[in-house]
Amino acid sequence: MKILVVGSGGREHALAWKLAQSERVQTIFVAPGNGGTASDARLKNIAISDPAALADFAEQEHIALTVVGPEVPLAAGIVNIFRARGLKIFGPSKEAAQLESSKDFAKSFMQRHHIPTAEYQTFSDLQAAHAYIDAKGAPIVIKADGLAAGKGVVVAMDLHEAHAAVDMMLSDNKLGDAGARVVIEEFLAGEEASFIVMVDGKNILPLATSQDHKRLLDQDAGPNTGGMGAYSPAPIVTPQLHARVMREIIVPTVQGMAKDGIIFTGFLYAGLMIDDQGNPKTLEFNCRMGDPETQPIMARLKTDLVQVMEHAVNGTLDSVELEWDRRTAMGVVMAAAGYPDAPRKGDVISGIPPETADSVTFHAGTSLNDKTLLSSGGRVLCVVGLGDTVKLAQKHAYDVVEKIHFDGAQYRRDIGWRALNRKH
Ligand SMILES: Nc1ncnc2c1ncn2[C@@H]1O[C@H](COP(=O)(O)OP(=O)(O)O)[C@@H](O)[C@H]1O
Ligand SMILES: [Mg+2]
pTM of the entire structure? Predict the structure, then answer.
């Protein structure tokens, strides 16, 4: 069968790589893909990004199944377009994707359905927003309502920063329409974890747990990024906490959407903040897999992903039991010079070793020009190492990172530090 993966990042490379391991797959098209998907003989890049044009392509090529990686096409309604034409696709409808595409939608949804989350209010009026900040005090969190590619959240540690964030969004319109409304919410202290499940409209299938590293620099210093590394499993999510998150957050979300008349299908990702008592609250929802969480999660998945996806689009996820590699997988992102503000493009990448039993390198911002691999985006590669211990997984990842070269490469040297500390 033929499969279409929509997107061009490390997440999509990892999904396509995993789907390609199925014996039933003939070709996997990646739209538009990257230098890594271009280099893999089992994958084929296609330069189409418009959802309707992708549906035309899926029809012509008799694509059996489409999997969507990023949020932008989901929020634009790619799933609605495919379904209206009878094409099988895994992802949320445009309506369901509002859980991610509007933070105000997600917050009022959570409040209505008693799903634990930070206290908040939404504003489009500048003066009212400033007054709310003064009334609540700092630290406080300012979030653009709409999709802002990871640039829409300011965790303000003082009032000055909080007021400036509101001005930036509501008055200077720096984020355009995405920042025309802001959610202002209570600051939550704790440790974050990523909790991702697959939903077929009714049944919920949890994936392995993971934890991302948002800050650019070691020890969680520097600016926020799309994510500088991730590992799976996340030991903070104990079996007890897992059960609690399912009971208090995931199940009420899927059921609450249905009650509100919106059937949720697709990956559902709850970004959690877990306080020092072990109580989870929802920071946000994403309606897709995380990047870079997907890379270590796919590296650990043993079950045939094609089969899982078929059950997902057919509403039979209750018959699937996922099998995971018991090892830890650790993904280290190598980013371009200047990332995240102004990533440089066009650096020559060399030294990526072939995949082994305990390491694999996924591409993100790369392109293949003739035989030369060039950087073409902020996050360039995600190197995943696998090992029986967190430490060994880390060693296997960094052994590969050190073999790879491109000018100005930035990467953290401490990915996995929370898991390492916990085990000591
Ligand atoms: N209420 C909060 N308290 C403390 N930190 C927060 C809060 N909300 C978000 N953050 C921090 O900001 C990051 C980004 O916020 P998030 O809601 O996930 O938005 P997005 O991923 O869309 O940028 C989170 O990963 C977390 O580190
Ligand atoms: Mg987030």
Answer: 0.97
